Amino acid sequence: MKVIVCGAGQVGTNIARHLATEHNDVIVIDQSPELVRRVTDTLDVQGLAGFASYPDVLERAGASDADMLIAVANADEVNMVACQVAHSLFNVPTKIARVRAQSYQKPIWADLFSRDHMPIDVIISPEIEVARAISRRLLVPGAFDTIPLADGKVQLIGVRCHDDCPVVNTPLRQLTGIFPDLNIVVVGIIRDGRRITLRPTLANLEIKSRSGETKTIGRLGITRKRVEYVQHGLFQAAWQAVRETVSMTRSTATAIGQMIEGKRSTKDLGGPLKIAEISGQMAQLGIREYIWFMAILSLHLCLINLFPVPMLDGGHLVFYAYEAVAGKPLGERAQEYGFRIGLALVLTLMLFVTWNDIVHLTDKIGLLK
Length: 369
Known about the structure:
alpha/beta, Rossmann fold, 3 domains, six-stranded parallel beta sheet, 11 helices, 47% helix
């Protein structure tokens, strides 16, 4: 397959690398001769210096017989024009463009990228993809990655099995017997840095068509659970809210414990910048996701406020507990030192999470270039 990649930045280089490893004929276009030289020196691809939206540049790249064009240049407009030129002049079958500006993707302009206007087959939006990834992570607590397949009918989920995980040391063939509610098929394992690919055995299933004909098909055992939204009464809704709160509290406590033990990276901690970023992403996904995120954020702030640290409500509860046990309040000098230590801890935490936000923002800017 012949593929033209417009843009030799970090994203374009990674795309070209993956396509080249699959033995595709890849041509990378970028206006920077230095970036083109770097890509051609490190990858088995061809390079061309020039503006990807110019017809003569696309012609020299061989767009007339290309199977796909992937436009991931820095400017959205260059990507869109490159796809338009590839369609109108060279009839490229598949066109993919990265469009970062959300103004182009508002529902009221839904017809902009249709076949009759600007024929782009697939739109890549890094911000929306990040928001969807966060939403998938929230829907599957404990998973370090989730990838939807077959239009969302199948989810590929990655989880880390620690020593206290119930499925550890359990033969795969016994998983469904011991855990009947575990509707999964294990397709891969990474153990001690070594990848183990599993080949599942298909089960024979006889089905009957509408015409009455019976045929046998193979099935992995993966089934899709139907999503149903149930409207509860006042008291039942309150009880469900309590259950969800307890569940999320346990998950948060487990995550904090893993960070203390060094089993989980502290990079997961975020400050005001990350909260603002995720809030905007959740608002784009819809009101339900936004309210759900606000509930999780409120719960986390409540749990942090209950930490046994002076300056927080948890610290005051510790002082009250001491007074109840000792029969007298803690000395004023001890309380003063406690508040100073608590203030130092709170300020240190604020600086740490803000630094995490800055590093995350810097990495994201570098990724989008």
